[in-house]
Amino acid sequence: MAAHDDPMTSTLDSLPDILLLGPGPSATHPDVYRALARPTLGHLDPVFIGLMDEVRELIQSLAHTQNRLTLPISGTGSAGMEASFVNFIEPGDRVLVLQNGVFGTRMKDVAGRLGAVVDSVDAEWGTPIDPEAVRAKLATDSYDLVGVVHAETSTGVWNPVEAIGNLVRPTGALFLVDSVTGLGGIPVELDRWGADIFYSGTQKCLGCPPGLAPFSASDRAVAKLQRRKSKVPNWYLDLSMIVNYWDGAKRAYHHTAPINMIYGLYAALQIILREGEASVFARHRAAHEQLVRGLDRLGLELLVAPECRLPMLNAVKVPEGVDEAGVRVVLLREHGIEIGAGLGPLAGKIWRIGLMGHNARPEVVERCLAALGQCLGKA
Ligand SMILES: Cc1ncc(COP(=O)(O)O)c(C=O)c1O
Q1: Which long-range CB contacts under 8 A does 52-56 form with residues at least 24 apart?
Q2: Average pLDDT in the 242-262 region?
Q3: How large is the average pLDDT for residues 92-109?
Q4: CATH number of the domain that 334 lies in?
Q5: Which of 56, 277, 274, 111 is nearest to 185 (CA)?
Q6: Which range marks the domain in which residue 60 is found?
Q7: Domain end call among 254, 273, 292
Q8: 192 and 73 fall within a common domain
Q9: 364 — phi, psi (to 5°)?
Q10: Residue 22 reports pLDDT greater than 90
Q11: Cα 78 to middle of ligand 1, angstroms
Q12: Distance 258 CA to ligand 1 centre (A)
């Protein structure tokens, strides 16, 4: 009998317990699971509205910003990306995307669909954006918005957003930072960087399931939104309406907030801030270094140079003659461990090992190395 024929059995009862060491989703923290199971309140319940205010303050704390317009967008990281362009770009606006992986490429696609004139500074995948190339580009052309991915999940590169922000700010362009993978694993300092628009995702270093995109916009960005000549061309992500629910006395219904996911995000942010940012970042760094030492013992090398490697996303070169996909299959089937494949030009050439949030712990790294060692022995 199929599970759906018997009301007493469910596929959910037999889900495998997989150690998620890919590029995300990563492990959900046990306290976040507990938060998700709390009773659902109405989206206009005064207790829930109080919790929304706390969530805003928690995002502001972790992203180091005073931006009033700070909230979780309903949807995954890509909804954050979409909201960033759809609200702040109008047809004909000039957008510069700094591109060195999948997510910079996606930014270009999103901006182009909105009628922006899109230009880019490109760096080879696996290498960081060179601020000097950005300086040269900004010296010859002017832009309404410059976008960069802080933590390029497709390659494991940590882009120098602070140096780039210093170059963008004097030009008057809005500065957009994607830190879907960075937030909760490495410092995010929006106000210091002069970042005007920021989004993240819950399923990486925050230790939450996928479903929300923490988001923030500066007063300068809000002014641009208010000056728009045309309506925001997407109803669901129109921040000029969403703020009336998230802010002020009115609390006007826009769309039903994903109540329990917001509990989960609230718990996840509290867990990080209670542990302390410095300690959370050091834990990610230590897990990364432990992994690199172990990989070295297995004769494996990383794709990215040490000075611009992300601690939470490790791109590992697949040795000559080893079946890249075969190793991932055996890891999953025999060890219950998921790691990621390479994308685009790196497909078949790298594995991506994520040590994000609750998974950035010594025992997790040890289990990963032991399993990988066994797979390679067999391969
Ligand atoms: C850097 C980056 N930006 C954007 C996204 C898109 O987020 P999502 O897949 O949650 O929509 C991801 C997802 O992996 C990402 O790593």
Answers
A1: 52/246, 52/257, 52/262, 54/266, 55/262, 55/265, 55/266, 55/269, 56/246
A2: 95
A3: 98
A4: 3.90.1150.10
A5: 277
A6: 30-273
A7: 273
A8: yes
A9: -70, -45
A10: yes
A11: 6
A12: 19
pLDDT of residue 379: 58
Domain boundary residue among 273, 294, 310?
A: 273
Q: Whose CA is nearest to atom 7 of ligand 1?
A: 77
Whether residue 130 sits in one domain with residue 85: yes
Considering the domain architecture, whether residues 88 and 124 belong to the same structural domain is answered as yes
Task: Please tell me the predicted confidence (pLDDT) of residue 378.
Answer: 65
Residue 5's pLDDT is what? 65
Q: Which atom of ligand 1 is nearest to the CA of 151?
A: 1
Q: On the CB side of 9, how many CA atoms lie within 13 Å of its CA? A: 8
The encoded tokens of residue 67 equal 């931006």
- Give the end-to-end CA distance of the chain in Å, rounded to a whole number: 39
Residues 356 and 214 in one domain: no
Query: Nearest residue CA, atom 8 of ligand 1?
Result: 77
Q: Which of 351, 343, 62, 338 is nearest to 182 (CA)?
A: 62
Ligand 1 pocket by Cβ (under 6 Å): 23-24, 76-78, 81, 103, 149, 153, 178, 180-181, 201, 210
Atom 5, ligand 1: residue with shortest CA distance: 77
